[in-house]
Amino acid sequence: MNLAHEALYTDRVDDEGEAFAGPQGFRAEVRIDDASWTAISPIAICDKALNALVDTVKPTTTPARCDIIFSGDNALADLNQTFRSKGGATNVLSFPSGEGVDDDGVQFLGGVALAHGVCAREAAERDISLAHHATHLVVHGVLHLLGHDHEEEDARQDMEALEVSILTGLGIADPYGEAERA
Asked: Would you say residue 11 has pLDDT above 80?
């Protein structure tokens, strides 16, 4: 993993060279599989997103962790086909683990994967920064790991309201816009 762009977050790399983000008790191991992501700061994005999640929704009663992978379109297309039987890449996928608390008292929530090309295209289409869009998708993906979904209308509205609240606290504009909510 190339972490040269993460110079301000060198304290976020453990003795084994694994990068992590988030507050104590709600950590993510961050992996950068596509060098295109190095234009932004994935560890900083995850750190901000996880801290904001904890501040806003108090997500777990026990220490928890997850994996967040910044990857490419091909990897997400493979995952999308394998696990959802859908062709092509998507912006973000979440894989809740369903695991309980381990022997160390930590619950592994699962993993979130983002596709650089899809995310970059969406950010450009919406005229927003890639960093803001990636932050939104990290929040969105981790909320899925915490059991939120958008399959039913009420659940969708609740999840979007949480996302907007978290993002607003980070100074990021409502990604859904009032027009889409009406």
From this structure: no
